[in-house]
Specification:
The chain is of the alpha+beta class. It has two domains: 7-275, Lipoprotein localisation LolA/LolB/LppX (outer membrane lipoprotein receptor (LolB), chain A, Clam); 285-405, 2-Layer Sandwich (Phosphorylase Kinase, domain 1). The chain has helices at residues 7-13, 18-26, 30-49, 67-75, 106-109, 174-184, 260-263, 294-300, 396-405; strands at 82-91, 111-118, 123-128, 134-138, 142-147, 152-157, 188-190, 194-198, 201-210, 217-225, 231-238, 244-255, 272-275, 310-311, 314-322, 326-331, 338-344, 360-363, 366-373, 376-383, 386-392. Helix 4 (67-75) packs across helix 6. It is globular. The termini are far apart. Mean pLDDT is 80; it is low at 1-21, 27-35, 43-57 and 281-285.
Length: 407
């Protein structure tokens, strides 16, 4: 069986190492950050929602099956050569008025659109809005996002995948799937396979929620085509809420060859180009040992690190040098952790990527810029010559309390 592997989305949404999470955001303007947040939200959903082959059905719910059996039988479906369909993207991540600029982008406000994907790793997603469409095009080498509302092209060069791959095309056995689910159950709660109908297709749905240290994440819900394992809907909910924060639903799905002209689309020549490439190691950097630990990191920096033993009730468990001039601290574990980025303040700068946000909060006399979402909170401020950025899948109150403890 050949799958519709969308490598571009998988690569972008692959979790970055802790040391580069906040330092990467530091280099982006507010407008650029807003588009990146929306794009990553869309891509995170797309990575799981349209990554494999599919087949049509009559719309009736499939027969009840144990989860492992339902997954196995779906993966055993036959080959398809491509997929097209309609897409509905819901984005309730950012509160109204939280960002200035780029508010018309369908990546931030949600939209409907169309999808084309081939079986060789290429595809295009078109999200439509009154402010102008957004085109997301991907292949093995690059993801390109053109936002018509700002006439801007965002590009992400993808790293080369050097990992070994199983070229046999064999699907996991029922025993292998069962073992995987058993191990996963140590960390997450997994529902059974619920027979349903999604987008007119016979489908199974499953809900996955963290057991410990889940932060504000409530659950991840996936519904997939029962015949051929293509997820037709994916939704992310916040803790304590049943309404999705992010959701992607495919409808009017059809299967068959997709023309290259449908997926190989270039942005307008006159568009502004923004490079969103992920940080890469400098030549020879791979052989240099990482600098970790509070004392070792402090010796490498020209400012005093603020690093209390605990922060908002979370123990400090990691301090490391990031980017050569930044201290990165992690408090707590899992999704519930709080990450703090500290560097010497730049007197010539107006601030980092959150500096243009309209929402501010007073931290004992210091003004911080803040963005709070159902899935997490981030703040940025300066104090005593040090620039701070704090982020985590924690509530606004917890994030602000943690920020006040950084003195």
């Amino acid at each position: 069986m050949r799958r519709l592997a969308i490598f571009g989305y998988n690569a972008w949404c692959r979790p970055c190492e802790t040391r580069s999470r906040l330092s990467f955001l530091r280099t982006m303007s507010t407008a650029r950050l807003s588009i990146a947040l929306g794009a990553m939200a869309a891509i995170a959903a797309l990575a799981a929602a349209i990554a494999v082959a599919a087949s049509s059905g009559n719309g009736s719910p499939p027969p009840p099956k144990p989860l492992a059996q339902a997954i196995h039988d779906s993966l055993a479906g036959g080959r398809v050569d491509g997929i097209t369909g309609r897409i509905t993207f819901t984005n309730n991540l950012l509160p109204s008025g939280a960002l200035t600029g780029s508010v018309g982008s369908p990546l931030l406000s949600g939209a409907t659109g169309r999808l084309w994907a081939t079986d060789d790793g290429r595809g295009r997603l078109e999200l439509q809005s009154d402010a102008g469409d957004t085109q997301i095009v991907w292949n093995h080498a690059r993801v390109t996002i053109y936002d018509a509302s700002s006439n801007t092209t965002y590009r992400l060069e993808l790293p080369t995948d050097t990992s070994s791959k199983d070229s046999s095309g064999a699907i996991p056995t029922l025993t292998q799937i069962s073992r995987f689910l058993t191990k996963a159950a140590d960390h997450v709660t997994i529902s059974g396979a619920n027979p349903t109908n999604t987008g007119g297709q016979p489908a199974y749905s499953v809900s996955v929620s963290p057991k410990l240290n889940g932060g504000l994440l409530g659950s991840l819900e996936i519904a997939w085509d029962a015949a051929h394992a293509v997820p037709l809907r994916i939704a992310v909910t916040a803790k304590g809420s049943s309404a999705p924060v992010l959701a992607l639903t495919a409808t009017d799905v059809s299967y068959g060859p997709v023309a290259s002209s449908d997926v190989d689309v270039s942005p307008p020549a006159g568009a502004k180009v923004v490079d969103l490439s992920l940080p890469t190691s400098k030549p020879g950097a791979g052989s240099s040992p990482r600098v970790t630990g509070l004392t070792a990191v402090q010796q490498k920096l020209g400012f005093s690190i603020v690093a209390p033993d605990t922060l908002a009730g979370r123990a400090r468990n990691d301090v490391r040098l990031a980017g050569g001039d930044t201290a990165l601290l992690v408090y707590g574990r899992g999704l519930d952790a709080i990450v703090v980025d500290e560097r010497a303040a730049d007197a010539s700068s107006d601030g980092g990527p959150l500096g243009g946000l309209p929402t501010t909060v007073s931290l004992d006399g210091v003004t911080a810029h803040e963005i709070a979402t159902p899935l997490g909170t981030a703040l940025e401020w300066q104090r005593s010559g040090v620039a701070f950025m704090l982020a985590g899948s924690v509530s606004q109150g917890i994030a602000e309390s943690a920020a006040r403890e950084l003195r």
